[in-house]
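Second attempt. The first submission of Arabinogalactan O-methyltransferase 1-like had a stray character pasted in from the spreadsheet, which I only caught after the job came back as garbage. Lesson logged: always re-copy from the clean sequence file. Corrected sequence (286 aa) follows.
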Amino acid sequence: MQKQSHSHFKPEKSWCLVIALVGLIGGALFISMFFKTSENSILCNNQAPNMGKFLDNGKRSNPQQLQLDAILHYATSRVIPQQTIDEIRVSFDVLKNKTPCNFLVFGLGHDSLMWASFNSGGNTLFLEEDPKWVETILKDAPFLHADTVKYRTMLSEADELVEHYHKEPDCSAKKSFLRGNHRCKLALDMLSDEVYNKEWDVIMIDAPRGYFAEAPGRMAAIYSAAVMARNRKGNGVTHVYLHDVDRKVEKIYAELFLCRKNLVKGVGRIWHFEIPPASNAANNFC
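This time the job returned cleanly.
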């Protein structure tokens, strides 16, 4: 994304990444066409057979057209993803086998077309803090599905919020709820019903802004992603990706809520976690 430092594009990066990205999207298109006759074998658990025909906001979704649009966009654009090709491939390798699935992305930007194309036919929802930025992106890509999030935290409060988590009963792993959880400052308590009602197979955390004191920081996003994963009722794990783990707050909160024991891969500045439902885990986050 261009407005924010971490999930926006950086035009000064090498064109080699653009070429590689086009190859990834082209590969996803090939895979989706190759397996079209055996769609049920790659459906995420509990997916409806008509998944992808319509987005939840009523807009028609054409999976193949979405991927073709993405190839055209990145083949002709001077902007490239903020994540490196090796970092992108970590989530791409999972998404190509999970699609169509429920994919929740913290952050909206010019890279959003890429993420949506990787999950063509599935449900991809972007959560963005800035309403004006949502309007800017959706003007050029109206088929993307995005919600605005109002965060209650600031990066400068990161240490204080760790203490708050330990003292506030409604933050505990035993309770582990988000909707209406006003007492736990780390809980994203005012999201859309869609976020709460769906079970997210894949969650990408590459926002909100977390590089200056007054920014929201990613503390609440990390905590809330952990709660969503623990509350999963279906079979299997939730794949959670956290970018910018070279920063202190991201690393501390990942260790606290996403858990080192759930870390399956780390490449560059991205960590990949596989988080089991709480029924298969202890009463603590880690």
